[in-house]
Fold:
Amino acid sequence: MFRLVVFLLALSACDPGVNSDVVRSGPQESSSSPHVVGATASDAGSAAASLERVVVLGTSLTAGHGLDDHSARFTNRIQAFVDSAGLSFSVVNAGVRGETSAGGVRRIGWLLREPVSVLILELGANDGLRGLSPDAMRDNLQAVIDSTVARHPNVRLILAGMQAPPNLGQDYVSRFQAVYVDLARENDAVLVPFLLGGVAGDPELNQADGIHPTAEGHRRVADTVWRYLRPVLEELMVARRAQP
Structure:
């Protein structure tokens, strides 16, 4: 069974804060487990627990940095798409401000304690903003993939490339972008060319920092992600129905 790796790698600020904000469709869980945002019915927690999980491992972009309403995050919007399409999946937001690829390696084990049907990686942008080694970033992202596949062999893992700041020089920018292209090829991944396509650089779609999308920007990011994610989820649903 082929593996579909979705690396959603988006630009986010190098915020030193550590703010893990894991969300799912459903009610609030205990403080030791992921935060849940969405339905408020008393039985929603057990219903969400029975759904296959789409985990978004990412940075402040995933966490929704700067948004007044967290329901505007692209992960929440994707959950709404999933529900409207009648697909039985729970979108888990595992965004942390300032997260680097090395931080993803440290966190992935915790996220893999429960089954993961699709892993969406939104990591690497902070490596680029800090001018960290593209080779080290490649190794870290590969380690996240390897850990995920070892724990959940049938996981569908998708890849969204990001662009390094041009002030770091053309050599760095080229090496940075090549990481995503190479990882996609080597891991049978689908490459999302640019997660922030149509959003980056548009002042109407970004907050005052010029980096983090506004609510409308998140809507467009969700549209981009959904184009690649929906076929994966539909295929999983078909495979599920075909099981004896």
In short: Residues 1-21, 25-46 have pLDDT under 50 and may be disordered. Strands lie at 6-7, 52-58, 89-95, 118-122, 159-160, 191-192.
